[in-house]
Amino acid sequence: MAVLRVKFTKTKRDKLAQVLWILNWVSVVTGAILFSLGLFLKVEINRREELMAEGAIQYVPNMLIAVGLIACVINFLGGKICYDCVDTTKFLRWKLIMLPYIIFTFFFTFCVLVGALMCYSMRGELEDSLNVGLTQAMRFYKDTDIPGRCFLKRTVDLLQIEFHCCGNNDYKDWFQIQWISNRYLDRSRKEVLDRLRSNVEGKYLMDRVPFSCCNINSPRPCIQHQITNNSAHFNYEHQTEELNLWMKGCRQALLDYYTHITHSIGLTVLIAWLFELSVLTGVRYLQTSLENVLKHGDPNSESDGWLLENSFIETARTNLNIIKSLGKSNQIDTANNRDPNINVSSTSKAHYGPDNVPPKQIPEDS
């Protein structure tokens, strides 16, 4: 029994083909949008790639770019097919191509769905990537005289100013690393030497933060030195007073930023998937109805269209039997590592001539 059988007249088939032609061209535009979104996400990630683990999440924009390009090609071909299917005679040139086209498009729509789900599931990997990248960038913040790292100070400062954040998790992360270069430390001063010697790794650690951590909205002048020393500042209690520093960590700020982008893109891709699925359903109905018209022999007659000729269970069983038969036909008996032709029985004997014939006498030379 066919699944979702629908009866089509000649007029309905022509209208279906015309509508699908328009929808396929709309899908070409949708594919271009997916390509643009993937390109946009790739650019946004590359803008701050020095703050992330190398190549951690590039597969998501690459997937969207590939899906967008394939969507343009598939739907362009689909538009051409549907345009020709208005004329039953022109359908003959596409008859053998339409079923492989539908199967390929079905798997492609599955890839579109995977792309949408990837946009929603990349948050965990993005967070790990940012955690590694930001920690490394903060550690190299002081290396302004080392090639390949000299730009990181500017990058981190601009990041904290733009996203109103400080540190990786919060401003206290700056207390645990040396972010002032040794070039700017006066080693002739006793307090500097004492601070260096007090640390096991010989780092110059202090309760300070870079200027970019200062909250520009605070009415009080920025306190970025001796943050935990209450006596160093007038009318100041760092444990109870709200600091005039950015309280949010940069990892959370960037995570929220990219999550908003990926979720918006994921919603767009999900809508595109539903649209592609509806177009594919229409093409399947058009293909089956036109094939039934050819069976009837009358191009103006009514015909049935369906998604599956048999039920889901019967279709699955048929396909499974086809796969099994293909496996059996290619199977070769190689038991005991012998030639498979050895066990082939023969029903006839080779004929070498009549039996009981005396050997021919060879005359001796005199």
From TrEMBL:
The chain crosses the membrane at residues 20-40, 60-78, 98-120. The lineage of its organism: Eukaryota, Metazoa, Chordata, Craniata, Vertebrata. The keyword Zinc does not apply. It is found in: Membrane. Belongs to the PRPH2/ROM1 family. This is Photoreceptor outer segment membrane glycoprotein 2-like. It comes from Mastacembelus armatus (zig-zag eel). Residues 334-349 have a biased composition (Polar residues). Residues 356-366 have a biased composition (Pro residues). The keyword Membrane applies. Residues 334-366 are annotated as: Disordered.
